Amino acid sequence: MMPIPAKALLEIDFLRKAAKEYGNEPYCFGLGFIQLKLSPTTRIHFWHENIPHVEREEIHNHRYNFTSHVLAGKLAFSLYDVAGYANIRGDVPEWERFDTKCEPGKPNETMPVTTPVHVHHMGDYRLTAGSIYKLPHTAFHTTEETEFAITFLERDLSFVKAYASVVKKHGTVSTCPFANPGTPEEAWELINQALNWAKLGC
């Protein structure tokens, strides 16, 4: 159950006050959403078309298990099975996995070793407002097709891995989700747009 009423999470004054009390400012997360941290375990994400997006979103998992509540709009995500690659014939693998830990304002920690993997697309999901989903730290996913959504995420910090894993096409340059975080006021303006869209039932 969410520790904060959903209605409050859709009010700009509440969010500004909560962010100030936590000592945090929103920023553009390059996967196409604004992230606002409200506590060590909770954050709220805002997706819409005016938010900058990297060229592509890489398949990834997380360092922890989490539960996400869709507050507005429609969240689109895809799940993937990522398995070891048995290179019997010496072929060049299509996909490779590497471990990384990236945080805003800190150098991106990426392990230099990549592991060839097989990737199987398991399915696409569309969750509307009121939906709740849980993903374990082992699940690989993307949210690239999300056009407009507001979600409230709760992290389970009872187990946290040192690194998350990212999967990309063999030989491609990895994208950095924190490359263009923008200014806090730019992020607040984008949040306000998302909240207004939510009130219109977009």
Q: Could you characterize the architecture of this molecule?
A:
The protein has a single domain (8-199), classed as Sandwich (Jelly Rolls). The protein contains 3 helices and 12 strands, in the order ααββββββββββββα. It has helices at residues 6-9, 12-22, 184-199; strands spanning 27-29, 33-37, 42-47, 59-60, 65-84, 95-101, 109-110, 115-128, 132-135, 140-142, 148-156, 164-169. A hairpin with a 7-residue loop joins strand 6 (95-101) and strand 7 (109-110). The longest helix has 16 residues, at 184-199. The mean pLDDT is 89.
> Mean pLDDT, rounded to whole units?
89
**CATH homologous superfamily (4th level) name:** Jelly Rolls
From the N-terminal CA to the C-terminal CA, the straight-line distance is 25 Å
Radius of gyration: 17 Å
Tell me the fraction of residues in β-strands, as a range.
35-45%
What is the correct CATH architecture? Sandwich
- What are the secondary-structure elements, in order, as H or E? HHEEEEEEEEEEEEH
Q: Can you count the helices?
A: 3
Give the total of beta strands: 12
Q: What is the CATH domain class?
A: Mainly Beta
Helix content: 10-25%
**Overall domain count:** 1
Question: Which word captures the global form?
Answer: globular
Main sheet characteristics: 12 strands, antiparallel
What layout of secondary structure does this protein have?
Blueprint: H1 6-9, H2 12-22, E1 27-29, E2 33-37, E3 42-47, E4 59-60, E5 65-84, E6 95-101, E7 109-110, E8 115-128, E9 132-135, E10 140-142, E11 148-156, E12 164-169, H3 184-199
Features of this protein?
202 residues; alpha+beta; Jelly Rolls; 12-stranded antiparallel β-sheet; 3 helices; 15% helix; 40% strand
